[in-house]
Amino acid sequence: MVTLRKSNERGAADFGWLQSKHSFSFGRYYDPQHMGFSDLRVINEDVVAPGAGFGTHPHENMEILTYVLDGALAHVDSMGNRRVLKAGEFQRMTAGTGVTHSEMNASETDPVHFLQIWVEPEHVGLEPGYEELSLDTIGTGITQIAGPQAKGDQLTIHQDTRIFLGKLGAGESAVQTIGENRRVWLQMISGQANINGVSLSAGDGVAVSDQATLTVAADSDTDFLVFDLR
Length: 230
What we know:
With 230 residues, the chain is mainly beta. Helix content is 0%, strand content 57%. The protein is globular, with a radius of gyration of 17 Å.
């Protein structure tokens, strides 16, 4: 089964300083048909105005992932991390027993555009943790960037979830095996592509289940994330 989630059908929030699109129910947006997909609970596409952002607030028992697409995002947390994430950088914060953090646009002149992703952890009460990874040097194809048993240049996810970054040029294609009883969510970041017979554009998502392979054929230069889930 391949189920398309069009970009313009996502939940939307406009706070002036924040423009946000929600693939799944979040905040004031509630849709019982879109509460998440397996352990993937949140995919928000956020654009924050210059000098604005999310002040200090708490989280617990969630794997919180941030991928900066354009601009710079200033991160401060109760674990002592003070970082400015730039375009092409990916962050994992384990909220576990509880953390507070803030996310502010680091620029006073330019917006910042990023994805915020939540994955439900395998266990509650984990020790809070933090990691980040630059994705700038990743080449063409589908490359794992996070997982439960991270290797080399990968982030650790405390769940049976693997995250891949896909980069394809126009006319290129890639095939990825889907394990037995596994499900996949693919989130388009940019470009246009055909995924298992379904056409996707930037901001679209697709849920794939009961399929042996994931086939991506790019119609233009394309970036996307793949979530391999239980």
